[in-house]
Each structure stands twice: as C-alpha cells, then as structure tokens.
Amino acid sequence: TIEVVVGQDPDKKSFHVHELAICDRSEFFRNAMKPEWASQRQDGRIVELPEDDPEAFSFYMIWLYSGRIPTLPDPHVPPTSESHHTLAYAYVLGERLLDNDFKNAIADTYVLYARGMPPAKRFYPSNEEIRVIYEGTRESSPLRKLLVDIWACRGKHEWIENDPDLPKDFMVEITKALLKARTNFDSVSRPWKNAHEQYHDH
C-alpha cells in the first residue's frame, strides 16, 4: 500500500490505499509512483496532496473500491449539507488526479440532483460550489457547462443579488448563454416599446 496525506494542519488526514488500485484509476498516481518521481520524495511510498480536501479524498476512496459516489439524491438531506459541498471539492480532486471516470460520476450525481429524482427535491449547486469548481477546474471543464446550463434554464435573479461575487468567467458564460437563448423571446413585447419613461432619471 501507499500512504496519501491530504490537506493541511490541523485538518490533515492520512489514507492508505493499494497502489495497483489507485494507479489503475489515476494518471496522477501512475506518474507519482514512477521511480524517477518517487525517488525525489523523502519517502517514495508517501504522496502528499496539501491543497486538497480530506473529505473529498474519502469520497474518492469509496469510489475507488465500490464504484459508487456516496452522495445521491436524498429527501432527508438539506441542500446546504456538507455532503453536497464536498461534491465540488471531490470534482476538483478528480481534476487533479486525472481520473475522468470519477469526475463523470460526480457530474452524473449533479445531474440527478438537478432533475430531482423522486422522492428527492431538485437541488442546484450552491454559489460556493460554483466558486470551488471554477477555481479548481480548467476553462474547458464540462462541469462548468453544466453549471451554466442550470443557471441559464433555472436561475433566479436572487441568486446573483444575494451574492455578487461569483466568478467572472462564470458570469460571462451565463451572459453568453442567455443572449443565445434570446431568440426564444421574439414574441414577447420589448420593454422599451412599452414606456420610454422607465429609462428616465427622476
């Protein structure tokens, strides 16, 4: 086995995992355990991930050995629970570990939440999750597209009014998506045709 040390003090946590199991899934670990890389560490059997979340790695361990994501739509779990929040950190971890299957499983979980699989209610990613995902993923990340699609189709103005500090890239993509969808409103009266006084300063 190898030891994986995740996070920073005081929340740092160690995990022990079978080398073959994790290297089979993660290109990051396949590279990390190559002799030329392992020899550069004080202990070649220890891999440190100081920037990642220990709870997210716990998610990854469950996925690694069971093939399932431990968080699925549950009517008894409120949307603000830590388990939902950890999904975002887990996706970022999957990005770092270069494990597409893990990332895709998390994306599927987000889709299930957004669909509202009965008897669970619909759940959309929180603004904090959006920040975590945008800070930890590449520009072309497909999960970013899911976040944009959710907001473009189901977003409410309160989501922005209550939190104006969303990632700039996210807001740009939302704006582009809404402008592309503008053709759907051709039959709706333009507000500037109704009363020009609404644009006057009083």
UniProtKB/TrEMBL annotation:
Protein name: BTB domain-containing protein
Phylogenetic placement of the source organism: Eukaryota, Fungi, Dikarya, Ascomycota, Pezizomycotina
Family matches, as Pfam families: BTB
CDD domains noted in UniProt: BTB_POZ_ZBTB_KLHL-like
Residue ranges constituting the BTB domain according to the UniProt record: 1-73
Naturally occurring in which organism (per UniProt): Amniculicola lignicola CBS 123094
